């Protein structure tokens, strides 16, 4: 779901000109993840892939913006993983503990799989 202005709804990087293709994760990556969540014979429409691409970008923007506000209030220039987890938790998402477990596994093994095929 792209808008013609090349900017992201809700702002972005403080007025920076950002190319549209830089605002969204590649559709092939989105498709690969979506396919892991549905039966092998299921089809995913182009519109479904595009709306998911948009939603993922909005989610990243929202979580990062909230984390940045927290770090600014604490007079820090860097956002850390705790800021991001705080942002996800504050927004009411119920999988912060799963993210903590995944982060720990990633730190130990270099990978974390939260979904199964």
From TrEMBL:
Residues 23-88 form the Transcription factor CBF/NF-Y/archaeal histone domain. This is Nuclear transcription factor Y subunit B-3. Residues 1-21 are annotated as: Disordered. Belongs to the NFYB/HAP3 subunit family. One of its GO terms (cellular component) is CCAAT-binding factor complex. GO terms for molecular function: DNA-binding transcription activator activity, RNA polymerase II-specific; protein heterodimerization activity. Keywords: Transcription, Transcription regulation. SUPFAM superfamilies: Histone-fold (SSF47113).
């Amino acid at each position: 779901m792209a808008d013609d202005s090349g900017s992201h709804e809700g702002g972005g990087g403080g007025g920076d000109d950002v190319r549209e293709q830089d605002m969204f994760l590649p559709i092939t990556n989105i498709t690969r993840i979506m396919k892991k969540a549905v039966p092998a014979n299921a089809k995913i429409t182009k519109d479904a892939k595009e709306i998911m691409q948009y939603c993922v970008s909005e989610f990243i923007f929202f979580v990062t913006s909230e984390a940045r506000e927290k770090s600014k209030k604490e007079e820090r220039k860097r956002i850390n993983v705790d800021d991001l987890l705080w942002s996800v938790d504050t927004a009411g998402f119920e999988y912060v503990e799963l993210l903590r477990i995944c982060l720990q596994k990633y730190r130990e093994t270099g990978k974390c799989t939260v979904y199964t095929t």
